[in-house]
Amino acid sequence: MKHISILIPEGETSMSNIEAAHKMFSKVNEALHRMNKAPLFKIQLVGLNKETTLGNGLFTIKPEFTLQDAFKTDMIIIPAVHGDMSKVIADNSEFLPWITKQYKAGAEVVSLCIGAFILASTGLLKGRSCTTHWLVADEFRKMFPDVNLMPYKIITDEGGIYTSGGAYSSLNLLLYLVEKFAGRDAAITSSKIFEIDIERNSQSLFIIFHGQKDHEDNVIKKAQDFIEHNYPDKITVDGLASMLALSRRHLERRFKKATSNTVVEYMQRVRIEAAKMSLETIRENVNEVMYNVGYTDTKAFRMIFKKITGLSPVEYRNKYSKSGVAA
After folding, report:
1. pTM, two decimal places
2. Which among 10, 95, 127, 139 is least surrounded, fewest beta carbons within 10 Å?
3. Residue span of the structural domain in which 144 resides
């Protein structure tokens, strides 16, 4: 039997993460019981205290165990905790050595959504890949530059450490774990019971690009502003470098450091975000949208659009057009 410990951190912890993790593994046990089979999972809540208050006092959780209890676990699940991440980590610092100790003793570790900040604070993600909610990608990179953040991913699985993307994509990681430890049939049954798309593997479709301006390089901010105001025009890296009185190599290096994108990637994301807005709100055809955001090659536009969003322009319009009428 696999012992699963769901952490109950201090702070505004995601009730949905806790409840979904507990229920999904419990439902697998219930299905096995109906088939006269032994349960696969023992699910327990582990907190820093015997009672934790959530939701500004609306909810109270009473974990079965605290860190003072002597027990070994096989898997630790870290839910999302909202708020100032430095404070969240400080308030839950007692968990960090315990998580590390359990991992070194053979336990696997799972973070759901922005629970990745607590996981990364253990040092276990150093040099490894992980994902988290795309909204906090820049903040995560700054706090943990030695982690290979992959914000477009729904799931990462590396060395017994698992992470999920934002919000309800945590359900996809839970399904993934059900499949890994209980089999494909159990995962398919769970996906039907909880009505989750079992094959979803990217956050790309949901990302809204706002530009990475949370840095102190004012020259690069000028470059970003120029791109954002002139994206329909032909912009070259060499032309941008000349305008800013920088060498191309120097511009590329500083731009990547400040924004985590190359200049070309940034231009692509600005143009595709503009195309997305047009496809959602304007009844122009796809070619008109393409020309209006600075592309002339239909094949290149469709390829870049799908690379960034996961859908073709037509598929995106069909899914998100605000002029559509609900049935």
Report:
1. 0.73
2. 127
3. 2-206
